[in-house]
Amino acid sequence: MKKSTIWILATVITAVFIALLTVQVKYIKDIVTIKKRQFDASVQTALYQTSRNLELNEALRYLEADIKRQSSANDSVASSTYFKTFRQKIQENRPANTPKALIVRHDKNSIADATKQMQEAVKNRYVYQKALLDEVIYKLIYTASEKPLNERINFKLFDQDLRTELQNNGVNLDYHFIITSQDGREVYRCPDFTTDGMNYSYSDVLFRNDPINKVGLVTIHFPEMSQYLYSSIRFLIPALIFTIILILIFFITVALIFKQKKNSQIKNDFINNMTHELKTPISSISLAGQMLTDTNVTKTPAMIKNLGGVVTEEAKRLRYLVEKVLQMSLFEKQKATFKKSELNLNELVESIASTFLLRVEHTGGEIVPELEADKADIYVDETHFSNAIFNIFDNAIKYKHPDRPCHIEVKSWNDDKFVYLVISDNGIGIKRENLKKIFEQFYRVPTGNVHNVKGFGLGLAYVKTIIELHSGTITADSNKRGTSFKIAIPLYEK
Q: How far apart are CA 251 and CA 245, in angstroms?
């Protein structure tokens, strides 16, 4: 499948997933918004009804108090003047007491008289009760509002009434409330008042018909409001989570597809590289074999020796290439076995550096050792560890800058647990985007369509595997002035 096709499919599927996720999120937001509006309306209705009940209760108290005063007026002469105000409001010439039961008369005009008397009694009662109500309203307007709020409100009864109204409107959450005056002074707060959930608070006016400077304000909030709102969408949360997981799996799948495609390309390059690498020794061995078997060629001892040497060297080279590939296969399956022994890192590095000295000097450069580790004893497999260091030196020479001599610096030092080795060169360097991939199998830093240095891309992968199997670490740093490899190996504890 072409890379462009994969990108198109990935883009389309991503758009579908994002659209699905957006719809789910919008649906959840709409549900929460609707439930919040319903809750707001229920709370405001409950607050309004509680405020109204407060005013009705106050009016009821005044009526009860007035009735008591009226009852006491019948037994007290001192109250006759007060009671007379009601009589004057009705009619001066009518009796003040409530109408008696109608007396049924048995003459022919009894029904008409009874009806007339009943109408007169109802009229008198209506006028009397209206006058009484007017008197109470007058006192409420000019007397009740003069009292402070803490005397006008029974807070325990107010709390019970508020809870009842909230439940009647379908709100069963715990709440906290506070009552303040118009100027913001606190009049009362519930005993268990907390500030949790203050972002979900509601307010309403108390005694809204009083003068503006006499009204109160009740503010209520719900600490568990968030849980209440989102409780209705709990069944949607798993669907949302599964959608997100599917999106992540999709992205991981796409990344793996691209990685596999890239690995496939790298392996194809490796096969091509390996084919070219193997052609040279095979051709040399084949040519030597033809010369040895060709009867037309005169064979002198020197020629036979020379051809034998070619076959031997090329066979070694061929074996080396094959073993290098097999080694990586063994390390991948964790089947490598080490024959570890105690070595001195400084001495090992000096020995390896000396084998490269002529090659470096041939370019006009030098190897500068600064092996300053006081403790340099390590416990490693000498063959494999030496090969790892050898690979780093070999790369420093193979990837030298064409316009300057090869210059290699080797440094070592140690702390209480590790000995460190840094090998730096002044070669062509490695770009940052390629630097993090140099330890991958088969990976070779691209130089266009042609690799001017032969290799399989296994050298640094082999180095990293060897170092890590010895409980060490290796890192690389590079710029236009060259590349530096830093190795840390545990000190050998005797």
A: 10
In the predicted structure, residue 459 carries a pLDDT above the cut 60: yes
pLDDT in tens, 40-94: 899 999 999 988 888 888 777 777 776 676 666 555 544 444 444 544 544 444 4
Ordered alpha helix ranges (H), 149-236: 149-152, 155-168, 225-231
Place of tokens 């020479």: 397
Tell which residue, 216, 173, 176, 174, has the closest CA to residue 195: 176
What is the per-residue pLDDT for 379?
A: 92
By CB neighbour count within 10 A (0-12 exposed, 13-18 middle, 19+ buried), where does 318 fall? middle
Output the six-digit token pair for 482.
């060259």
> What phi and psi, each to the nearest 5 degrees, are found at residue 419?
-110, 135
Contact 261, 3 (CB under 8 A): yes
CA angle 280, 281, 287 (to 5 degrees): 90
Residue 92 per-residue DSSP state: T
Enumerate the H helices of 153-236 as residue ranges: 155-168, 225-231
User: Which residues, 6 or more positions from 49, have their beta carbon under 8 angstroms from its beta carbon?
Assistant: 165
Between β-strands 176-181 and 186-189, what pairing exists: parallel, antiparallel or unpaired?
Answer: antiparallel
What's the pTM? 0.44
| Tokens 């403790």 found at | 375
Backbone angles phi, psi at 167, to 5 degrees: -65, -35
pLDDT of 364-399, one tens digit each?
A: 899 999 998 898 999 998 888 888 888 888 888 888
Q: CA distances (Å), 492 to each of 177, 336, 372, 412, in order?
A: 72, 21, 17, 16
Give the three-class secondary structure for 373.
Answer: coil
Tell which wins on pLDDT, 163 or 324: 163
Amino acid letter, 416 = D
